[in-house]
Design goal:
138 residues; mainly alpha
Length: 138
Amino acid sequence: MPLEQSILTSTKKILGIVEEDTSFDQDIITHINTAFSHLHQLGIGPQAGFVIDDAEPEWTDYLSVDPKSPILNAVKTNVYLRVRFIFDPPQLPHVLNAMQEQLLESDTRLLIMREETEWVDPDPPDVLVVDGGDPTGE
């Protein structure tokens, strides 16, 4: 059986909500979009940002990678944890703390994955001007 690719439907499933129950869809969509906003601040996902309005968008619409990609699976987990944390937070303090630690670890691992594939040298080498021109373009 193939994995559900709809962002909303798969998030509902992992939250324990059946696809046919639409009573919480607006809340869950809002929290999914909050999670995407957070990921955008981490440099994950489309440069212009990403939002969903219904069950149509799929995970590969968010990240154009192989559906079995490690970063896509890590994104799914991060979105689920963040939605669960907002939508249905644990009542016991030690469970709440454990979930917060999971979110921090998930963020860190996503940052590492992003840097492995999209790393940009923060200190590029000096520009060598060969023709005697002005490197500023003036």
